[in-house]
Design a protein that fits this description.
The structure is a homodimer.
Chain A (H helix, E strand, L loop, with lengths): L8 E2 L9 H7 L9 H18 L4 E6 L2 H12 L5 E6 L2 H12 L3 E6 L8 H11 L3 E5 L1 E2 L4 E2 L2 H8 L3 E5 L18 E5 L10 E6 L1 H5 L11 H9 L9 H17 L1 H21 L15 E5 L6 H12 L1 E2 L1 E2 L8 E5 L6 H17 L9 H10 L5
Parallel strand pairs in A: 1-12, 3-4, 3-5, 5-8, 8-9
Antiparallel strand pairs in A: 2-10, 6-7, 9-10, 11-14, 13-14
Helix pairs in contact in A: 1-9, 2-9, 3-4, 5-6, 9-10, 10-12, 10-13, 11-12, 12-13
């Protein structure tokens, strides 16, 4: 273990690093969630969420992890035995499958290899063939780094309800909830929204609420939560201090502008990939500008990626993310969503380079950081 | 509205005031929930929770409001159509009823007037007659200030599963989870545990888990959450910063000793009641040492209690809690759980006295605070 004095570096795709002013907001004196002091913060946070979502609809805010908000969609939109479709290309696609199965649904899983990007036309055909009226998918599956074309999927699936998990992508890559006609978008506080974990969201337009089924949940009941939010109340005591933090974080993001955030994430992804390739390592996530959330990398021959991560953490205080499920030990992941800049990418690359060398791997040394800076500087065209 | 510079006083029974060092812990740099830095905090928090619960069993920790943990008990222990009993003597008893109905249970509600204390023998007889195998109740119903005799209820109900909501009472009044044989105890971070809201808990012994039904929830699945906690993991990204705060708060409570906390709460309740009576106001909550969580007070003739609360808040920066449901406008409540001392009670009483005078109520002036201090000093015998 590194000593308490040594610096820690958090380069994971959730929780992500949280700016000091966002953390400080969590430490402000406690206020009552039904008092005037909090209502101002709450109203502003809910309004800012709509701006980040690019929606005119309500964004319901839950005190929960993102999975809770995912479950809310299944528990409010479906009834037992109903046929639904899930587009799965990673660990979180399988989470949709698990939640749907828990709710007794007839799940038609449209599965891709982990790391593959779903083809919208194929998805559209599969959904039509399945007869499903609701489709669950990910915009970003954090387990692989794939950012899928949810706009294309929306166009291809036709007149069904589309529920998109954008937990790790909202605020990092473009998502036009209203303009693209996405019915429900799920997100969480601890990814590109650069806030502490503990808050989850679901955008729920009136047209979707109108087709909701009798809710099979109490805590995540959309109608009850919306009814409270409509009068700036919360159905259940919310995480007041986390909402204070989220308010500050959303303000920082919106002041800088969402377009700037999207461009920065493209550049950060480029920098990470360029550096990794310069070391002679192989990318697991796609090598294109879309992969702006997390960069997944195959461990080099003879190195277990979990061993690399333990070395990085215990010897250098650097935390990266491991491979999940069958990718455990095989890949590792550098997150770059939210409060990240190119110096973070440089540090992550330098730490990987140093650690792999210390572990005896044969890699190209001394070029990754320079390549990363070059890639970061190259212009982004919209 | 008071100006930003004027001091705010939070005298509500949840969220409760949070000590500065507990708030500051929430603002520490973000760490990964699966890293070594967090695992130490997590292990200590889970262990401290067991100490506060006085149980050897696992206390499952959820990122949610207390209602989420209440729902977890219903969703894991019951199947649709099953007969259950609910002891209801306030707003939160009705919440048990609502959750159980949402899950399609055959609910036998054993109802008392709000403000009345359930009689254990009566409850025992009603449960036996109902044929229910599971009983849900409150130790403290925050809506009325009644702290019920859950030890007596445990003895009276016989061989059924007893689920106790101790959200506002755990850490304030004695609750011996193991010694009294309470099967499941629900609690939350934002009451006597003097932490920010956003964490909820349920103690789940192996014997109870063995009789769990197929879970009708994904996020609150006891087995999945326990499986993760068993290896110091969390099933879903937990509220890292809130757990840091809870860890510090539990440390403060346990260092001082639970017995000291129980005695302090008795004294605080005495002080509040003595002051209220000295003003000539009428108590709504029972006038005994058991009512150590919150003091509920009838608004005097001609005064709407919501008007009093608005005056207290807008003119003096003092937040008290309103009456709920049919008690709205009729009662108001002074919370005294967690980080409260006698000077808080004195401030609350002085503010009520001042505000009622300003609103033209006929009350006894100038004696409440002195009576409160006297009552606080009188010895507590175990």
């Amino acid at each position: 273990m590194v000593s308490d004095l040594e610096k820690r570096y958090l380069f994971t795709p959730g929780p992500t690093p949280v700016p000091p002013e966002v953390l400080a907001a969590s430490a402000e004196p406690m206020v009552h969630h039904r008092g005037a002091d909090f209502r101002d913060i709450y109203a502003r946070t809910l309004s800012r969420l709509k701006d980040v979502y690019r929606t005119e609809s309500d964004v319901l805010l839950f005190t929960a992890s993102g999975t809770g908000a995912m479950e809310s969609a299944v528990a409010n939109l479906t009834e037992a035995g109903e046929r639904v479709a899930v587009v799965s290309h990673g660990s979180f696609g399988e989470r949709w499958v698990s939640i749907c199965e828990r709710y007794g649904l007839d799940v038609h899983a449209i599965r891709y290899e982990w790391g593959e990007s779903p083809d919208p036309d194929e998805v559209g055909a599969a959904v039509r063939e399945s007869g499903a009226g609701i489709v669950f998918c990910q915009q970003s599956d954090t387990s692989t780094g794939v950012v899928s074309d949810v706009r294309g999927i929306r166009e291809a699936v036709g007149d069904v309800t589309l529920v998109v998990d954008a937990i790790s992508s909202l605020g990092a890559v473009p998502l036009e909830t209203d303009a693209w006609g996405i019915d429900v978008v799920i997100s969480g506080s601890q990814k590109a929204l650069m806030s502490p974990p503990g808050l989850a969201m679901a955008s729920v337009p009136e047209r979707v609420l109108a087709q909701a089924k009798p809710p099979r949940t109490f805590y995540f009941d959309w109608r009850a939560n919306k009814k409270a939010q409509d009068v700036l109340d919360a159905a259940f005591t919310p995480a007041v201090s986390l909402i204070r933090s989220l308010d500050v974080a959303l303000g920082l993001i919106l002041d800088d502008g969402l377009e700037a955030a999207f461009e920065r994430h493209v550049r950060l992804g480029r920098a990470a990939r360029a550096g990794i390739k310069a070391m002679g390592l192989e990318l697991f996530s796609p090598d294109n500008d879309g992969a702006a959330v997390v960069t997944a990398i195959r461990a080099p021959e003879g190195i277990d990626s979990d061993q690399l991560l333990a070395h990085l953490r215990d010897k250098h205080g650097v935390t990266l993310a491991p491979g999940q499920a069958h990718l455990k030990g095989k890949i590792f992941r550098i997150g770059h969503i939210g409060w990240f800049d190119v110096f973070d990418i440089a540090s992550a690359l330098a730490a990987v380079e140093l650690s792999l060398t210390e572990l005896g791997a044969e890699i190209e040394r001394g070029v990754a950081v320079a390549r990363a800076f070059e890639a970061f500087e190259s212009p982004v065209t919209a």
